[in-house]
Amino acid sequence: MSEYTGTGISGGVFSGIVKVVHTDLDAKALTKEHVAVLTAPQREHLHLLKRAGAIVSEGGGLLGHIAKLTREDNTPFVGNIADAANLFKNGERITVDGTRGVITCES
Predict the structure, then answer these.
(1) What is the pLDDT of residues 24-71, one digit of tens each?
(2) Burial 18-30 (b: 16+ CB within 10 A, else e)
(3) Rounded CA separation 59/54 (Å)
């Protein structure tokens, strides 16, 4: 198992399947079984990101719009994972601990 540490933005723990989101089409394919992995959170994807069980991003901060909404929705969110969109692969199973800011790869 591999662990990666970033910033815990919204608490909670979720295990799911990676879905890297580059386009609107990727975001539209999200379901509650997915962990949405982003280069950077974008407001225009917000309504689609609500479909995911958790969010991981290369950027993101505690005071951003998406951070606020993920906390309101109790969706685990870890930001500041360098190169996350290349590090995690579609279909890979990971666990997101938004409270500790830790991502664990299960494979």
Answers:
(1) 889 899 999 999 999 877 777 777 778 999 999 998 776 677 777 888
(2) bbbbeeeebbeeb
(3) 15
Q: Where are the domains of the chain?
A: 27-59
Condensed to tens digits (0 to 9), the pLDDT of residues 61-101 reads 766 777 778 888 899 999 999 999 999 999 999 999 999 99
Token pair of 1 as six digits:
């198992």
Torsion of CA 80, 77, 65, 81, to 10 degrees: 10
Alpha helices in 1-107 (DSSP H): 24-28, 46-49, 65-73, 84-87
Q: Extract the tokens encoding 34.
A: 């997915």
